[in-house]
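Shapes recur. Our protein:

. . .
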Amino acid sequence: MAEMELRAGVVDFTRQTDSGCRTLLRLHRSLLWLAMTLDGLTHPPDRHGRLKTPGELSRDAYQVALAPHHPWVLRQAAELVFLALPEREYFLRLVCAQNRHEAEPVLRVVIRALENVHAATQRILEEHAMLDLP
């Protein structure tokens, strides 16, 4: 797809265009955000015995993976989403777990799969110098 879009002139390195490569780049960044958020669900409590909420985990991952590519107004809107995320137990039930220990093996499989796809898209985007498409 990348080679075809480059040959066809669909990808523009100076302005944002609607291309499959641009969509792949968005998905690539989102995969990193999701993997980081899910990984946070597997972390033990801090030294005070507190677990981060899904909103906090999502915010932390967003700051690394997505915020650098978003304008100010979108970053502010994302803050509202983090506040609205359900509690940790909701996410654990999605993987049929009652607690972090039960969820960790399932989450590790999902995280590994996300990381593999992220690595593959990283190679494709790097090969065609598309990691910084506008």
Remarks:
- The mean pLDDT is 95.
- The longest helix spans residues 100-127.
- Helices lie at 2-8, 20-41, 54-65, 72-84, 88-94, 100-127.
- The radius of gyration is 17 Å.
